[in-house]
């Protein structure tokens, strides 16, 4: 089973690495072609569209993953669950789409762009990736997404050439998502069987789906509302653009850490169904160690390289993103840790009410904080409020997660990770004083940081680091001794 988890993680990680690598190529291009205003309009309009996809899909993604994971081995039952959930989502997305048409397409300032975004709503309605994740078939989802993402990048470079091409960028963005989700339906017949669906069957899904919707609504308030409120309170799309690009860099880095989350969530859901409490504790403890192990160098690395990276990566229009990135680097810790506690423990344990509580508390703080901070500090105010909100989420979730994993076990890895990370931060920041603000200079900073963190973690004998070294050494030995 451990071997399967590693393989699933590698497939998912390969896709997540691609998700990171492609924006590293496209972001500098898009930042310069569309400019801070164009990027800001995209960020603002997409945040509005996301509210409708959020309410239309309810909490079906997380709920569907969990329910399919519980019934992996029962083809008939999982087929019934699949169709019940799919039909339910089609109904709710249709209602959401109807409201979207009259509130945005008919009356919105950016009505043409909102019309193009209709593909995003159709894409959300047809998204069944949760089904394959519930079956732990991460290879299927990862390979499909890789092909679509590469096609999206090719279209951007071929056709998006000037600020007026924003509508083309959105067309390719929404269209690629739609194509990606439609492609999964081709493989369905092999995993399902014909079943009869009764109208009464939908009732049992409504309440648990609604309970998972609440934390997602609260979560999106401080993921999306920052950009929405920046656009409304400041009325400066350049500020929205600065915030959008700075957050994009940090969210990209999080994909490496959270690549393990859907795999572990499905595995732990299965363990809960078999009441294997000790094994759950063991896996969660290792997940938290893994999170600290990766989040530390990434967070400190972003803070240390921002000054050198922004000028060549985003361009002179986005220099305001430097302090936003540095403050936002704290989010790497908060988001990755809450992802581990919330999605790997609370959801599989069916304690989504606690997840809702943590998200709701943070959402209220975020909304009120934005009202005060955004008018005064613009993008910097939005990021400060988001950091506070995410820390509240993590704190509340840890209070309840400690019942499964004691806090001392959650924080034990910090005794080694944080000191090594601070040493790396100092070394990378010092090197940045003498290196050019170019891609080569940033690359050298990253290498220096990796060396300092790696060597220092080996010196303090961190178990995760030692295991990584042994894995690399074993892989090299197999390659060099292969006949």
Characterization of the model:
With 483 residues, the chain is mainly α. The mean pLDDT is 83. It starts with a helix and ends with a helix. The protein is 83% helix and 0% strand. The longest helix is centred in the first third of the chain and has 56 residues, at 2-57.
Mind telling me the C-alpha Rg? 22 Å
Percent strand equals under 5%
Order of helices and strands: HHHHHHHHHHHHHHHHHHHH
Beta strands, count? 0
**Biggest sheet, open or closed, and with what strands and sense?**
none
Individual helix count: 20
Number of domains: 2
Q: How would you sum up the global shape? A: globular
Helix percent reads over 70%
Summarize model confidence as the mean pLDDT: 83
Low-confidence stretches: none
Give the termini distance in whole angstroms. Answer: 28 Å
Q: Supply the helix-strand structural class.
A: mainly alpha
